[in-house]
From TrEMBL:
The lineage of its organism: unclassified sequences, metagenomes, ecological metagenomes. One of its GO terms (molecular function) is antioxidant activity. PANTHER family: PROTEIN DIPZ (PTHR42852:SF13), THIOL:DISULFIDE INTERCHANGE PROTEIN DSBE (PTHR42852). It comes from hydrothermal vent metagenome. This is Thioredoxin domain-containing protein. Gene3D superfamilies: Glutaredoxin. Signal peptide: none annotated. Residues 32-172 form the Thioredoxin domain.
């Protein structure tokens, strides 16, 4: 009888844990949705020492969380590089947050694929708990004051004229609401999906 009761209690507890875990993956932390300020977090230097991440105070920031092992992340890297190359830092900056333990492996990858925009390293646990990383890649668009303009999940074609035009507007401090931003990026993903189906 006692065995049966313990078994039932364990079953209920496991169900609750599973439910909490599922809920945790559905919605990002409140602190990383549009309209909120970017929460404080740490990045890793080359010797794995933590230091506080300080976002730039000028221009729109494209903050891209990615990993070397993630194919869509790797596919969008050249587009992010072209985006960084085509804008003055006063208007727009691209920073990558690589979820990678091995600093030397990351250096080798960046050198091999000629990625020269700023890439920092971040621990996975922090990326998940503070920035709400659930799927790779994740991009946060930020104002110079650190307020989040958009939270974008998935890879994008950063050469898309609609995205370039939107980012130019944001770089010129024009007001664009978060729904309009989301729509531009959703359309970009739909276009990419349609192009893949035709291949």
């Amino acid at each position: 009888m006692k065995l049966l009761t313990i078994s039932r209690v364990m079953s209920v507890l496991l169900s609750l844990v599973a439910l909490v875990a599922c809920d945790a993956t559905v919605s990002p932390p409140r602190s990383t949705v549009a309209g909120q300020f970017l929460p404080a977090f740490s990045i890793l230097d080359h010797d794995n020492h933590s230091q506080v991440f300080t976002p730039p105070k000028t221009g729109v920031l494209v903050l891209n969380l990615w990993a070397i092992w993630c194919p869509p992340c790797r596919e969008e890297m050249p587009g992010l590089q072209r985006l960084a190359d085509s804008h003055d830092a006063a208007d727009l900056q691209v920073i990558g947050l690589a979820i990678e333990e091995d600093a030397y492996l990351l250096d080798e990858y960046l050198r091999k694929y000629q990625i020269s925009f700023s890439v920092k390293r971040m621990g996975r646990e922090q990326a998940e708990s503070i920035l709400g990383l659930r799927e790779y890649p994740l991009t946060l668009l930020l104002r110079p004051d650190g307020r989040i303009l958009a939270r974008l999940v998935g890879a994008f074609d950063w050469d898309d004229p609609a995205i370039r035009s939107l980012l130019q507007q944001l770089g010129q401090r024009q007001d664009v609401d978060s729904e309009a931003i989301d729509e531009v990026f959703r359309n970009n993903q739909k276009a990419q999906a349609a192009a893949r189906r035709q291949m």
